Amino acid sequence: MMRPLMRVVLSHYAIGLISVLICIPMIITLTEIPKSLWLKPDLHEEMDIVTGIGVIMIGWGVLLEERKTLREIFGLLEVQNEQWQVAIDHVCHNYGVGQLSIGLMAEICIELIKIPNTIIYTGEVDDYLVAAGLVFVGVGALLLVRHVLVMFFFLPRSVAVVH
After folding, report:
1. 55: which residues sit within 8 A by CB, 6+ positions away?
2. Could you tell me the pTM of the whole model?
3. Is the pLDDT score of 24 beyond 60?
């Protein structure tokens, strides 16, 4: 029962669709948060949003990165189209590492603000750190859009690159 479900969930179309769905709150974040930067003293909500998006980016990056391991766990290795699956694994691994790394950078920007000012003084640069976190969210969104395009349209070319 789990094998057929995981075969669908780990397909390049499902991965592309999930990436699209993850892009939506990222894009909303990129359009809404800049409206309040430098206009109000309390950035807790903005920090929480960037932190939440960063966690989503990290989580999705790890899942993408470990697609091959998930296929192994659910007995989906050595299938008829294994060369195709290996190509998808390779692309997902690369984009997953990117998403994970960029999400961590967004998180670092926000965590710097949360450290007490007696340790790291960020008093006057909190808005800039949130903006830097937003830049990383934007880069992550662009990376996911590119990943979606590869998953839906350009994956056959990557098969030739991998093998």
Report:
1. 103, 107
2. 0.89
3. yes
